[in-house]
Amino acid sequence: MAMTNYQAAAYKQVRVKTAGPGQIVIMLYDETIRQLKIAVELLETGSKQLDKVNNAILKARDIITELMVSLDMEQGGDFAQGMFSLYVWFNEQLLEANIQKDPKPVQVVVNHLTEIREAWAQIAGKVDVKPQERPGVSIRG
Length: 141
Description:
Family: Belongs to the FliS family.
Radius of gyration: 17 Å
Pfam families: FliS (PF02561)
Distance between the termini: 35 Å
Protein name: Flagellar secretion chaperone FliS
Number of helices: 5
Subcellular location: Cytoplasm, Cytosol
CATH class: Mainly Alpha
InterPro entries: FliS, FliS_sf
């Protein structure tokens, strides 16, 4: 039996609320990559659905911007600054690709994001990162 849109949205919401910080970052990368792959596929096939290309790239840029503003520049130091610069470059590449309707820069960004996502997955797998306990909710007996 297939899930309804409502069920899928509810499941996704629960997944996000119960995920640790590392898992949330991975989910953000997954969604960004998914959106950009949609754009690449539409552009490479010569689709006339340029509104879908635009929307996919804009969604990806929005997520990248959220990743940028979530960086802790004080604690992250040079690493955070490097990631910030990389995110800026990603957004510049995607802006230009969207204007030119060129899939090549989009694919380059996808490749970089995939590598970073894999690194996050390895880190999250090694570190036991638990979501913050929710006030008023106890699962202890």
